[in-house]
Design brief:
Largest sheet: 8 strands, parallel
Order of helices and strands: EHEHEHEHEHEHEEH
Helix content: 40-55%
Distance between the termini: 12 Å
Number of helices: 7
CATH architecture: 3-Layer(aba) Sandwich
Strand content: 15-25%
Radius of gyration: 16 Å
Number of domains: 1
Structural class: alpha/beta
CATH class: Alpha Beta
Shape: globular
CATH topology: Rossmann fold
CATH superfamily: P-loop containing nucleotide triphosphate hydrolases
Number of strands: 8
Bound molecules: adenosine-5'-triphosphate, magnesium ion
């Protein structure tokens, strides 16, 4: 059964794209059949993949696909993908500017929504608002699991500190965080980052 994991946050730059691609390459490494869908009209990942293929002379048919979609089309496209059963996981990287309607539709078809946030005051406020906006979708879609993924956290921070800082958000948090690291700033679109593996494992355990 295909599982849909959507990265959603109203905050631009909170780490949706960074985590979506790291999760996808990591899952591909675990021999999962993965499709990465980008709804952000900047299409950063699709462009990065083209560059990787050209630069490293890769055989694209051996890589997991990265495809474009849009707020209007994503929900019916995901329904079709689920019924085709072609993929184990579909990862959706949405745009910070996604409309309310777009977010709602994505939540209704997703198994898991991951809200990325740092611990800065600004990010926390937006994460709080994003959780509030998404919560009603849990009633409409009983399979939906909403999680906070703390991102860009100083690597020496204790998980308890992260938990305490995020305690006001009425939502589950993964038992791990993504540290602020240079290796995560320019992720490969085909090679997994070893240091992301434990995060992938934690996400898969909660699905
Ligand atoms: N864990 C991390 N460590 C270091 N840099 C990070 C990390 N996560 C994100 N970044 C950097 O922060 C910036 C914003 O990240 P990213 O593009 O993933 O955010 P986004 O939520 O997809 O933004 P948008 O809403 O604009 O699409 C990028 O320059 C990225 O390299
Ligand atoms: Mg992005």
């Amino acid at each position: 059964m295909t599982k849909i994991i959507s990265f959603i946050s109203r905050k631009g730059g909170s780490g949706k794209t960074t985590n979506a691609i790291n999760l996808a390459t990591s899952m591909h490494d675990l021999k999962k059949k993965v499709l990465l869908v980008e709804t952000d009209p900047n299409y950063t990942l699709i462009s990065s993949r083209k560059i990787d293929v050209f630069k490293y002379k890769l055989n694209e048919s051996k890589l997991f696909p990265i495809v474009a979609s849009s707020d209007d089309e994503i929900a019916p496209e995901l329904e079709t993908l689920i019924s085709s059963g072609q993929y184990d996981y579909v990862i959706v990287d949405s745009a910070g500017k996604t409309t309310d309607q777009g977010i709602k539709e994505l939540c209704l078809v997703s198994d898991m929504v991951i809200i990325t946030t740092s611990l800065t005051q600004n990010d926390l406020l937006v994460a709080y608002q994003t959780v509030k906006d998404l919560k009603p979708a849990e009633k409409l879609n009983p399979k939906l699991k909403i999680f906070i993924l703390p991102n860009r956290i100083h690597s020496h921070t204790r998980i308890k500190t992260v938990r305490d800082t995020l305690a006001n958000l009425d939502v589950e948090m993964f038992d791990t965080f993504v540290p602020q690291r240079k290796i995560f700033t320019a992720p490969s679109t085909y090679k997994s980052e070893r240091k992301y593996r434990c995060i992938t494992k934690t996400i898969l355990e909660k699905l």
